[in-house]
Specification:
The complex is a heterodimer of chains A (125) and B (173). In chain A, a hairpin with a 2-residue loop joins strand 1 and strand 2. Chain A contains 2 helices and 6 strands. Chain A is an alpha+beta fold and 125 residues long. In chain A, 27% of the residues lie in helices and 34% in strands. Chain B has 173 residues and is of the alpha+beta class. Chain B has one domain. Chain B is built from 8 helices and 7 strands. In chain B, strands 3-7-6-5 form a 4-stranded mixed sheet. A 3-stranded antiparallel sheet of chain B has the order 1-4-2. In chain B, helix 7 links the parallel strand 5 and strand 6. In chain B, helix 1 packs across helix 5. Classes of the chains: A alpha+beta (125), B alpha+beta (173). Chains A and B meet through strand 1 and strand 2 of A and helix 7 and strand 6 of B.
């Protein structure tokens, strides 16, 4: 089942946003980036795919540390705009999408901003 | 300032690097006046109107020169809805165009009276929570419901973005 998550916050007067779609798959080992995941992002934003991979990977590790079963994640699409999207917003969106794909609830996450966006499970603090 | 209606400027990607370089080059007195200044400053300084700068592909430049339709849709090309998206000064437009080979910077001029008549939302005056809620409701990041504004001023990481609805676009001279 695909899970889409849109991160959207206006901070310091500017919009910070990214949209990531993931799919959980027990046959996948770890995190996989779909071949066409970046088909809708500008070529100069290819680092968004690596950010998505890192976000999904961090969510997977957090899920496993909470005793969750090993489930792989595929990043299906990454979507952003040049004026609103940065690597950190993609990473947060990917984390949240994967987190929900693992069956967890968004309310269990702590999303913070200190010049850049970070996300982690509340239980981890 | 004497810009032609919907004129496509001669500032192309090839000249952007020169524009951004240490010896910043502009084409004429109007461009020198516009460079690096806000549209509000221009209006106060010249009293004749406001100039906006929009980065477009050659195909979209031709579309805009012919009236604008069909307007692009979707998150990446029309986040606040169909219409024109522009910058308030040439420097912001040049920076935005810098990684877009083949793009052109179009200049659009609107009289101060027409501009002041627009139904405008200035997101820079909104609280963070209110702005987030507005974007979630009316932008393509969220529900993309019709917002009804002819003009939206929106601060972004690359400068202030100026959105004009198709109706407002007709007021450019």
């Amino acid at each position: 089942m695909e899970i889409q998550y849109t991160f959207l916050q206006v901070k310091e007067g500017m919009t910070h946003a990214a949209r990531v779609t993931v799919s959980s798959d027990p046959l996948i080992d770890g995190v996989k980036i779909a071949e066409k995941a970046g088909a809708q992002i500008p070529s100069f934003s290819s680092d968004w795919l690596e950010a998505a991979r890192q976000g999904a990977e961090k969510a997977l590790q957090a899920h496993l540390s909470l005793g969750g079963s090993r489930v792989g994640i595929e990043v299906v699409t990454v979507l952003g705009t040049e004026v609103d999207t940065r690597q950190d917003t993609v990473e947060v969106a990917a984390f949240c999408a994967a987190w929900k794909a693992f069956g967890h609830h968004e309310s269990a996450l702590k999303i913070e901003y200190d010049g850049r966006w970070t996300v982690c499970p509340k239980e981890a603090n | 300032m004497g810009y032609d209606k919907h004129s496509v400027s001669a500032i192309t990607y090839d000249s952007v690097s020169a524009l951004l370089g240490t010896g910043r080059k502009t084409r004429g007195s109007a461009d020198r006046a516009a460079f690096g200044k806000s549209v509000e400053f221009l209006a106060a300084e010249e009293g004749t109107g406001l100039t906006f700068y929009s980065v477009q592909s050659e195909a979209d430049a031709a579309r805009l020169a012919s009236g604008g339709t069909p307007w692009p849709t979707g998150l990446q090309r029309a986040n606040l809805g169909e219409g024109l998206y522009a910058w308030g000064n040439q420097a912001d437009a040049a920076a935005y165009a810098a990684n877009k080979p083949g793009s052109v910077i179009m200049q659009f001029n609107m009289s101060a009276s027409d501009y002041s008549s627009l139904n405008t939302l200035d997101m820079g005056t909104m609280s963070e929570d209110a702005a987030t809620e507005w974007m979630s409701t009316y932008s393509e990041w969220g529900a993309a419901q019709p917002h009804g504004f002819d003009h939206i001023i929106r601060p972004t990481s690359m400068g202030t973005e100026y959105y004009f609805s198709p109706n407002a676009f007709q007021l450019f001279k």
